[in-house]
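PROTOCOL LOG
Step 1. Enter all chains and additional molecules of the complex.
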Amino acid sequence: MDIYASLLHGFQVALSPQNLLFCLIGVTLGTLIGVLPGIGPTTGVAILIPVTFGLNATTAVITMAGVYYGAMYGGSTTSILINVPGESASVMTTLDGYQMAKQGRAGVALGMAAISSFIAGTFAIVMLSLIAPPLANFALAFGPPEYFALTFMGLTMVTSLSGESLLKGIMSGVFGLIIACVGVDAISGAERFTLGNIYLLDGFGFIGVAVGLFAVAEVFVNLEKAEEQVFVKTELKLKSLFPNRQDWKDSLLPIGRSSLLGFFVGVLPGAGATIASFMAYALEKKLSRHPEKFGTGAIEGVAAPEGANNAAAGGAMVPLLTLGIPGSGTTAVLLGAFLIHGLKPGPLLFQSSPDFVWGVIASMYIGNVLLLILNLPLVGLWASLLRVPYTILMPLIVTISAVGVFATDNNIFDMWVMFGFGVIGYLMRKLEFPAAPAVLGLVLGPLVERSLRQSLTISHGDLSIFVTRPISAVLIAFAFLSLLAPVVRAVWQTSRERRGEAHS
Amino acid sequence: MKTSVRRLAVALGVLGLALAMAVGVGAAGFPEKPIQLIVHAAAGGGSDIFARTLAAANDKEKFFPQPIVVENKPGGSGAIAFAYVAGKKGDPYFLLTAVTSLITTPMMRKAPYGLKDFTPIANFAVDEYMLMVKADSRFKTMKDVIAFAKANPKKVTVGGTQLGSSDSVCAYLIEQQAGIQLNYVVFNSGGEVNAALLGGHVDLAVSNPGEALELAKAKKIRNLGVYSEQRLAGAPDVPTMREQGLDALYVQNRGLVAPGGIPADARKVLEAGLQKYTQGATFKKYMDDNMLSVAWMDGPSFGAWLEKEHGRYQQILKVMGLLK
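Step 2. Run joint prediction.
Step 3. Record the structure below.
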């Protein structure tokens, strides 16, 4: 059976009234879960496992997959509106999305996030249905040295997240790396900076730190301002809710690039949507003709990470379906759901359960369309939320954040982490340190460290392992290029200025 | 006189009735409210699936008159959940998933609580372990591995998770039995270990039959040996480690414990209800789907088993240098 026949058959399965209904339920729940900070797609899918017990396997997984990519859509909403990342893959969306909201362009940002998500999500599913098996082999070619090279390259992106002062950006990034050191070291089993506190054995929870640095800090900053302030005073017109011609022109290429990038990063087990969104943002800033606009409300800064995280969610389905290897926390839960429903995840899944695999893939096409239809009309509703006065909105943000952060691991300690980092984030804002590099360091720190130590364990301490393997060598070269580029540019510029002076 | 006899009779009658009622409450009263089942790991893992299957089966088969509510308290290799449940001393409305980490985590973290703070309720199953190589590996049997490792110390790489975990102990047992040295590479999760094996980045990896047999069927990997006393029914062609001259036995258990010092009759009710669960259809399907081996133990025998394993781990982890 060739791919098109299989896919057609998949659509027959996915379009049955029951599956269609549950796909709709899944993506709607996913959107909601994405909107609520803290409760991410992993928890959302896990909650559904017992609920879907009575359903057949295909319907159950269609619902849960819907929650997964639906959450990627919903995650952007609070990022843009109130600077609260709905889940970890939406942290980058806050940088420009929230600035756009402050300028009264929340609707445009939300609309572009939904459209970008739709295009990138659909692109990922097309790739998934056409070339999943060869892609799985690509994913397997990534060993510890390649992961190190990739994540090291990611760390060099700190230069593009820094804003005004490179030095302050690097300091913030190093702060993130230090925070990332807290917890049990997996390799030696030693406890690092846990101060004997069992809640620190796994380190600081990412969601607590991110929500603290962004959302709670924002509330603290706003406490200083006048009381009756309203977010957007301008009247919201329907026309201003949708992206204009210039927005489209600015966004189309970034969406295309971040779809590709996000998908390939998503395919790699151990990388995932959060890293994809970081890389897509940094890439667009590097390629942009006006990088200085990033962080002040550039539409590409919303389109790129939102596209990348959706494409990554589709990419993560590749190793799950072709090899039975989960590439992210959420796909690990999905794997558990496969087992509960009596499916045997592994390389034979495509042959042993074609109805299931192709039914789920086809449902993802449908789910993406449903999400677009669902999300676009909501844009106006969400945007009008910003007319709520600060005195009501701010306590609401703190409450929603606290509940969400608590719900991640049912742990009150995470809430104190959130408030603690809220204070740190406030101080950073006052001293003009950017928060994004700290979050980047926190996400990448453990990955860089682990893959470095794995590589050196395998090579018995020989550093040449990073440059003798082709993929790793290329990525390392890119990393140094991106590190040196600003220096080279600066040197070139000064020398040209000097030459200019000499001529005159 | 007559009245006093009558009074006495009435008094005795009331007393008897009261006694009967008291006994009745004691036996049939528990549980009067939902039972909380704390999972020591994140949602979606083996323990979580186990707990949620149990809770869902109870909704259908009603082996307890009250629902079981599952709550995940992940973190610190179980440390957070263990401390939480240990703190519920005497409260029979809490259950906790109990796998090997219940023994190893308190040991390695020098925690103020230990096995003595929990009441063993029952063990349900054990998960076996297999050692696998990539399909095109030069190693065909354990003899090949040992011969190569003897000639090239620390050159054979084995992928696994955090030191002290089941796979690290499995790797250690081979080293100890064969007198060889392997190069243990730590990964974040079992999924990443399997990916590294399939990509040829590590030579060996340890896995449960559920994953290992599916990969073997697709001819992606070969299983060199199983850490059980006898060959597994589902994999008769995979030899045991013992057959290959290595006295390496290892299983991961799936059981439940309650806080220490709960009333004896409540413990009995829990044990009886759970035994009923193991006879139902949901449990059988769960065991088949996850390729687990049945290993029912009631409270006292589970307790004895835990104690025995505790002694064994103390030895192994000490030699591995994980106990200070």
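Step 4. Note key features.
The CA atoms of residues 168 and 433 of chain A lie 6 Å apart.
Chain A has one domain: 3-503.
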